[in-house]
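Consider the tokenized backbone below.
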């Protein structure tokens, strides 16, 4: 995650990093506690297992929720509008986590992941939108 502030204008942005976080992707064995659980089917003595879901998806949701909280904290301290750029899946999760304060300040959303780019290239890509 990169939180950037534009200290110039919309025509020629000058982006400065406010905060940077990286979500370390752990192996599945470190995210799951054990093998899937089992249960009895009603009306049958047979057991069946159930899946607990993908732990990486759960971790991504947790990380994106922390990004939403960081945005909310930022809106308390900073004036100005917000432009969100995130991978499409992360953007969908992020939208559901926006506080009312953040939602009121978001003026644009870009469904692209720019976090792997240097800040000057992010500014160039945003100018092309």
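A designed sequence for it:
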């Amino acid at each position: 995650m990169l939180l950037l502030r534009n200290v110039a204008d919309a025509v020629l942005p000058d982006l400065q990093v406010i905060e940077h976080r990286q979500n370390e992707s752990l192996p599945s064995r470190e995210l799951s506690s054990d093998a899937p659980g089992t249960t009895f089917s009603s009306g049958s003595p047979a057991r069946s297992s159930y899946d607990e879901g993908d732990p990486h998806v759960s971790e991504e949701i947790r990380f994106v929720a922390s990004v939403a909280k960081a945005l909310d904290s930022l809106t308390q301290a900073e004036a100005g509008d917000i432009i969100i750029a995130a991978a499409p899946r992360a953007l969908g999760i992020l939208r559901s986590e926006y506080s009312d304060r953040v939602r009121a300040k978001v003026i644009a959303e870009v469904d692209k992941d720019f976090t792997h780019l240097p800040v000057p290239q992010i500014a160039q890509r945003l100018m092309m939108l």
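The chain has a mean pLDDT of 83.
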